[in-house]
């Protein structure tokens, strides 16, 4: 039997969602350092104490916002996981999904980096941390399933390893590259151009190193990579890119 929310529970949930949306807007307008609990409550026409009734601290509120945006990020990964692409192309598609989401929701990437720092993470409540981790788990499971499928179809040898160990490198590269992209001036200092191309090329090289079949015979062919990315964007993300008004384009190498 399905349990329905009472009117009071529904009102509380709607109010919490209102606070989360207001915080997202303040993040976009003022940046992380500009988030103020009193200003958020005031923008929603509530007392600051009411906001604290829902979120015990600013850290809890920021994690709740990140949890909400993680649910949106999952939609990008689902486009890849539910497609008919070959398994190896899906792995590249996941990296592309990460890049597109970071481009469409830059405030989320900055926020996620912030909440994962020790000072914020440990200052938040266990229940909010658990909600965030639960929201992220389906993304990892989607990638894990693609690895399992590749092993089952003899495209990839498991070497006695857990499937997720084959994706941790790609995850690390994606997070690391976007950290550099959002750190203004770092890539320019080293004259590193077109970071998305660098990331996706290195994903292909890593898949080759794992002997994930079929191997990419031309990982340094920039025209081939540009064509591949354009095809994946059109196949997987055309609707999302139209909605957000932009899609990932690689610069001239």
Which structural traits does this protein have?
single chain; mainly alpha; 13 helices
Task: Summarize the structure in words.
The chain has 253 residues and is mainly α. It has 13 helices and no strands. Helix 4 packs across helix 6 (106-115). The longest helix has 27 residues, at 126-152. The mean pLDDT is 92.
Rg over alpha carbons: 20 Å
- Cα shape: globular
- Termini separation comes to 59 Å
Number of distinct helices: 13
Counting copies of identical and different chains, the oligomeric state is single chain
Count of DSSP E strands? 0
Helix content: 55-70%
Write down the overall mean pLDDT: 92
- Biggest sheet, in brief? none
Uncertain runs = none
H/E series: HHHHHHHHHHHHH
Q: Provide the β-strand percentage band.
A: under 5%
Structural class: mainly alpha
Set out the fold topology.
Layout: H1 7-30, H2 37-43, H3 48-54, H4 58-81, H5 87-104, H6 106-115, H7 118-121, H8 126-152, H9 168-182, H10 186-189, H11 195-209, H12 222-236, H13 238-244
Helix pairs in contact: 1-4, 2-3, 4-5, 4-6, 4-8, 5-6, 5-8, 5-9, 5-11, 9-11
Would you kindly provide a brief summary of this structure?
Helix content is 70%, strand content 0%. It has helices at residues 7-30, 37-43, 48-54, 58-81, 87-104, 106-115, 118-121, 126-152, 168-182, 186-189, 195-209, 222-236, 238-244.
